[in-house]
Model the fold of this input.
Amino acid sequence: MIRVTRLNGEQFALNPDLIERVEGHPDTVAFLVDGTKYVVKETVDEVLQEIREYRAGILATSYEMDRGEYRAPSRATDDATAASVVPFPNREER
Done:
């Protein structure tokens, strides 16, 4: 999910896999595949950058998982525990 901002300042998360196109005329409008439109404060370039970073993060996590190096994000607790390593079998072990 990417975080975008409505014109009233409210932030919300948008699934970039459902975005069909983004136009800037003069406001930035994200058109979803189901016909829904969202007017956002971010520029077209900023929305595209968020989508690139989102997809790069998925690829990076997939690579780490494949190599058995993935670290799950830590969850905020009273003790502020550190992230734990999630074991993932190597290709040879599968």
Notes: The beta strands are 2-5, 11-14, 19-24, 28-32, 37-40. The helical segments are 44-66. Residues 2-72+84-93 form a domain with the OB fold (Dihydrolipoamide Acetyltransferase, E2P) fold (CATH 2.40.50).
